[in-house]
């Protein structure tokens, strides 16, 4: 979906050269184009990536030669990690867990506001040996940049980047389970309030909607999905400190003004807190008798009032760090997309619903 053809081709070429038992010179560009059924321009770009990564060398008129697989030179014993919620606490826990390996974890806040060239230079100057990009910290541009510059990277599960190991919360299974729990309690009109996902990560939202359609089937109502715009766009006309408050209030008013309002709402806990306050104050509803609430929340921020699915950033980060250390120590790490289950906790925010 997001991949450039030549990035995928470069991985296929690396495997082809590794398994081909070529003696001396590699096949030329035109024979490779015929073998892979691609254009000369695409092949040249893919070969340039492999040359930059040190996997092949091009010796003028002598041709191309295979140097072997990727080799990482560990210089700092430092791994950068981005995209964690409650970064400081988790980084501390991770450093305690992996101290015996000799590697140190540092949290990085990516300055997305600067242009791509400056951002790339910023990364190249960082004293790190590898980088982990969790959640929406991954972008196609960053994953391509690290891959092309032979910097070990673990990212999110973006389509088209199957050659890069990735970790992601299991959105489909989590929302399916939440919906089944609510259905078992008699709920049919189940709503979702969340910010829209950035374009690169639309497939997250698509998985969530698929869960709604698969579980609710004929009871699925598109009007109960409230996701008017992306968080960054919302911030443009709403102060950051007030964003969850306003979004929660707006979504609650939207749902409860429908001709047939929902009987249960799923949302991230900061949004749900303000949905609850608005429903009680403006609509005089008793919760959860009149409206059940199910929370999505990060592991260290749980409010026990809410029935909650906890995002296990701690599990994803620990797994990613372990694999990154293996990569830096020269072990063969199979590229794989790993979907991390959320942990479910009971709460007082949901109740049986009796349909009239």
What's the short story on this structure?
The protein is of the alpha/beta class. It is built from twelve helices and 14 strands.
Commentary on this structure:
This protein is an alpha/beta fold and 356 residues long. It is 41% helix and 15% strand. The protein is built from 12 helices and 14 strands. The strands form 4 sheets. A 6-stranded mixed beta sheet has the order 9-8-10-11-12-14, sandwiched between helices. Strands 4-3-5-6 form a 4-stranded parallel beta sheet. A two-stranded antiparallel ribbon has the order 1-2. Helix 1 (5-19) crosses helix 3 (40-52). The two termini are 45 Å apart.
Characteristic key phrases:
356 residues, alpha/beta, 6-stranded mixed beta sheet, 4-stranded parallel beta sheet, 12 helices
């Amino acid at each position: 979906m997001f991949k450039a053809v030549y990035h995928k081709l470069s991985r296929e070429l690396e495997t082809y050269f590794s398994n081909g038992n070529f003696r001396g010179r590699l096949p030329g560009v035109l024979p490779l184009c015929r073998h892979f059924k691609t254009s000369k321009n695409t092949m040249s770009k893919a070969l340039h990536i492999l040359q930059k990564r040190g996997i092949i060398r091009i010796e003028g008129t002598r041709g191309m030669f295979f140097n072997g697989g990727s080799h990482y030179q560990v210089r700092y014993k430092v791994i950068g990690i981005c995209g964690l919620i409650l970064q400081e606490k988790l980084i501390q826990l991770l450093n305690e867990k992996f101290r015996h390996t000799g590697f140190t974890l540092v949290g990085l806040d990516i300055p997305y506001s600067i242009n791509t060239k400056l951002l790339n230079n910023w990364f190249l100057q960082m004293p790190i040996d590898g980088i982990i990009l969790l959640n929406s910290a991954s972008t196609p541009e960053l994953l391509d940049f690290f891959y092309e510059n032979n910097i070990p990277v673990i990212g999110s599960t973006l389509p088209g980047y199957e050659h890069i190991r990735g970790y992601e919360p299991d959105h489909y299974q989590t929302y399916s389970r939440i919906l089944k729990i609510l259905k078992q309690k008699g709920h049919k009109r189940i709503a979702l309030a969340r910010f829209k996902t950035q374009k690169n990560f639309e497939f997250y939202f698509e998985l969530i909607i698929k869960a709604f359609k698969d579980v609710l089937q004929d009871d699925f109502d598109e009007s109960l999905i409230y996701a008017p715009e992306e968080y960054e766009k919302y911030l443009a006309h709403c102060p950051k400190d007030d964003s969850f408050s306003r979004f929660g209030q707006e979504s609650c008013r939207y749902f409860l003004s429908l001709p047939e309002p929902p009987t249960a709402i799923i949302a991230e806990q900061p949004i749900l807190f303000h949905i609850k306050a608005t429903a009680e104050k403006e609509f005089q509803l008793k919760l959860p008798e009149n409206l059940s609430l199910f929370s999505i929340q990060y592991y260290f921020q749980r409010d026990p009032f809410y029935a909650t699915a906890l995002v296990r950033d701690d599990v994803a980060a620990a797994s990613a760090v372990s694999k990154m250390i293996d990569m830096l120590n020269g072990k063969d790490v199979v590229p794989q997309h790993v979907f991390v289950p959320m942990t479910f906790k009971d709460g007082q925010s949901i109740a049986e619903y009796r349909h009239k």
